[in-house]
């Protein structure tokens, strides 16, 4: 049986193939759409390439200048922050709204702290403000340089299988993520992502004004329990927090209309559909 999420993503990927871009000696993947309107940078988590945001890219193309990225196979958060600054400068973007999810949210916070002049708004989504606690848990306590890649991939598979058992309505999402971790994300890229989070630097304070910082979270996020979500909010003191009653760790995939609605709101675009929608709350 055809998986509708994978089929839709693959259709998008065929129309918008990932372009390889060299940034300070590292090769990134970039999917760009739109040439007019506010600039939006989309940074995925560990189990996503640039096109995992395909539903938001399609919905916003023509109204915003969207740049989604795929991580290189080397470097870490510090190096990647400099690479993203170079990417924006190469493309003539003076300042962008920067959304990062999970690992991408950690990188987005670092980027906003060290390059505030390039950030119009920071959207820290389904992410954390410190990596101190995760270092003791798998896969981060494994040998990420030399451990068998099959074991690392199997660990993701066990977690995804457990999520599907408790959320059978998200079986299509799980299949998509299994394909990502199963080989669509190469071994060097996957190892680099895991090491980037395990070895992530302490995040410097974000100096952006309160009203230009946004948090996005899900009540049912299996990777980020409530204490970690509260710690992120305490650290960032966001002007707005969007809270999904359901959506797990990937609300942009399983709640695409609502996610697009909040992006429209933050980009000061006309809100289409039902906005950020039923099953979410917005706190200031």
Helices and strands, with pairings:
Elements: H1 4-15, E1 19-23, E2 26-33, E3 39-43, H2 54-60, E4 65-70, H3 77-90, E5 96-101, H4 103-114, E6 119-125, H5 149-166, H6 171-184, H7 187-198, E7 213-218, H8 226-236, E8 240-244, H9 251-254, H10 256-266, E9 280-283
Parallel strand pairs: 3-4, 3-5, 5-6, 6-7, 7-8
Antiparallel strand pairs: 1-2, 2-4, 8-9
Helix pairs in contact: 2-10, 3-4, 5-6
Summarize it.
InterPro entries: AB_hydrolase_1, AB_hydrolase_fold, Maspardin. The chain is α/β, with parallel strands linked by helices and 284 residues long. 40% of the residues lie in helices and 18% in strands.
* CATH architecture descriptor text: 3-Layer(aba) Sandwich
Report the uncertain regions.
Answer: none
As a percent range, the share of helical residues equals 40-55%
* First-last Cα distance: 44 Å
- Count of individual domains: 1
Most strands sheet: 9 strands, mixed
Rg of Cα set = 17 Å
Fourth CATH level, the homologous superfamily: Alpha/Beta hydrolase fold, catalytic domain
| Number of distinct helices | 10
């Amino acid at each position: 049986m055809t998986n509708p999420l994978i089929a839709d993503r693959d259709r998008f990927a065929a129309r918008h193939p990932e372009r390889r871009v060299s940034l300070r000696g590292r090769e990134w993947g970039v999917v760009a759409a739109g040439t007019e309107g506010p600039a939006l940078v989309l940074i995925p988590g560990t189990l996503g390439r640039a096109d995992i945001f395909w539903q938001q890219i399609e919905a916003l193309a023509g109204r915003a200048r969207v740049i989604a990225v795929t991580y290189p196979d080397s470097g870490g958060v510090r190096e990647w922050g400099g690479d993203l600054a170079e990417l924006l400068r190469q493309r003539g973007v003076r300042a962008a709204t920067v959304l990062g999810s999970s690992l991408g949210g950690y990188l987005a916070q670092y980027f906003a702290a060290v390059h505030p002049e390039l950030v119009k708004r920071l959207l820290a989504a389904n992410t954390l403000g410190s990596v101190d606690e995760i270092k003791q848990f798998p896969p981060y306590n494994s040998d990420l340089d030399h451990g068998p890649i099959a074991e690392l991939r199997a660990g993701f598979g066990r977690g995804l299988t457990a999520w599907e058992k408790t959320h059978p309505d998200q079986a299509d999402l799980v299949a998509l993520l299994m394909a990502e971790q199963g080989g669509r994300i190469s071994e060097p890229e996957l190892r680099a992502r895991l090491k980037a989070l395990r070895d992530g630097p302490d995040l410097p304070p974000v100096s952006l004004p309160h009203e230009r910082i946004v948090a996005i979270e899900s009540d049912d996020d299996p990777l980020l329990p409530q204490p970690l979500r509260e710690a992120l909010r305490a650290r960032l003191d966001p002007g707005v927090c969007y809270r999904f009653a359901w959506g797990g760790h990937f609300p942009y995939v399983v709640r695409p209309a609502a996610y697009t609605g909040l992006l429209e709101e933050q980009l000061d675009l006309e809100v289409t559909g039902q906005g950020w929608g039923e099953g979410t709350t917005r706190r200031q």
